[in-house]
Amino acid sequence: MIRIEIAEHAGFCFGVKRAVEIAEKAAEKYGKVYSLGELIHNEAAVEELREKGVYAVNSVEQASGEVLVIRSHGVARAEREKAERLCKTVLDATCPYVAKIHGIVKDLPEDGALIVLGDKNHPEVMGIIGNACQRAFAVMSFEEIVELFESGAVKENENAALVVQTTFDRKRFTDISRRIRERYPCVEIYSTICSATAQRQESACGLAKRAALMIVVGGKSSSNTKRLAEICQEYTETVFVSSAAELPQQIAANLPADCVVGITAGASTPGHIIKEVHKSMNEEIKNTNENEEDFAALLEQDQSFTRLYTGKRVKATIVSVSKKEAVVEVGAKQTGYIVREELTNDPNAEVEDVVKPGDVIDAVVIKVDDNVGTVALSKKRVDAALGLEKLQAVKDANETIEGEVSQVVKGGVIVIYENTRVFIPGSHTGIPRGGKLEDLLRKTVKFKIIEVGSERGGRVVGSIRQANRELRDAAKAKFWETIEVGQKFEGEVRSIESYGVFVDIGAVDGLVHTADLTWNRVGHPKDIVKVGDKINVIVKSFDPEKKRVSLSAKDPEDNPWTKFVSEYNKGDVIKATVVSITEFGAFAQIIPGVDGLIHISQISAERVANIASVLSVGQEVDVKIIDIDNERERVSLSIRALSEEPAETSETADTSEE
Fold first, then answer.
1. Domain that holds residue 313
2. pTM for the predicted model, two decimal places
């Protein structure tokens, strides 16, 4: 009997699936979006995306003013910057594994050389070179690397590094890297092949060794699919098709009666296309062998014809749910069930929150009991394995993600992300020592992945503190790029000193000197504000190098001097209240925020030795405005001038009588 087997790892990888999800969600939100180049190298998938509102363009200019998606291959730094200038919104769907390479090449010495092992015409390689700060060369073989050194393009005594296209053949890379280390030990080698690519290639290779025929499904322009076809051709007859319509007629006619037909697919091949190929092969084989068995049941890992055993991955259809478990159909004679604890890592979730009748899920067999005809399965263990792969990619790309805190445990908290438990130690929660971790329970938090370790049972460790630090650093960088004198903020008083107040204005703390707190006279800042108060401030000056900002809480529109000069003139006789006494005179308040100086010589026509014997704080006096200095905003007052005015009038009268 001819059997069909689908490779364990085939079809969409994490990076491609992520890019498609980003584009589809964006199209649903905006109605129409554009991708810079075809989002993925698969003709059928591109057409499906177009029907959903995702259109491919060849240049940033073609998407000017629109929403642009950067595809999973990534782009050069210059292209990204142009997109951010011209497009309304830019959504980055760069595969985390590709983004990791961009990060590596950006940090390499600028005076060195970069060697990229990959196809120079592939968009991923072009994007890597476009993010490099040093001389960069794309090669496909060890011989081309030798030519770089012998021609002098790369010198043996300089800083040189090698990165690899994520879809490059791992076997070839291993051989090339070994030869580089032997001949050019100066070259620093970075293994940047995507783990999903390696798994796909190894899975295809293992299946090809057992198969009489391999069918490789994917876009003809997809480099990783082409490589799968090359690998399979080394071991058996191979057919490379982009869809079921391209399968040769009577392809199974000359196959042995008892053999395996293998199917694998590239990272950009949608699952439904793989299923269509599988269905067509089923029909072809049934026609050839006149076999009426239902091979369609083999579509999902050939479950009906394989004995269930512990550790086997299966497709399970939910039949019914209760508070304690879900009953499932796995296409075998045993009745399957999944208890609540094996459905999800979330201790707060109920069975009906996770699955409902009719759902088809991936599960793994954890116990087979043939005596009672049952099989126990686990959904969360499959989810956790997939989650670990995604979280490793998140860690490699240094992404910030978010999730809800579901538990407080000894030493930290638990966040569920992609159905995987992420442990965040107390020291990484951002809660100060002595604080309550319970304050985070059921809250959505942003965090970084700092450890994904299979050696510790697949434990994943995260850090809210690191994510917050990066957010603060980014906010500070943006602050120093955009700050301007005169810029207004609403800030919060963080601390109070004798000389002023430190105010948090979002990214940094600025200082409001005591004299800049209010237009009125101030004794101590604590008389005006308290810690936690919200106050409006204006930037007076700043120093990016010293990271200092000088602020003022005095709004120019409320400047009392403006009111004073509009209502008072030199020569006016007014009432003022003494607010302070000094050795050289007394200050008297004319209106709130404007004081005038009564110099000691202007207090009385007679000599005044002790001002306190004549005036006292709080005393209201009649004064004459004898000078207004607009430039320095100062007012001179005189009591003496009032006492002299009658005498001058009398003298004038007496003289006239004579």
1. 308-378
2. 0.45
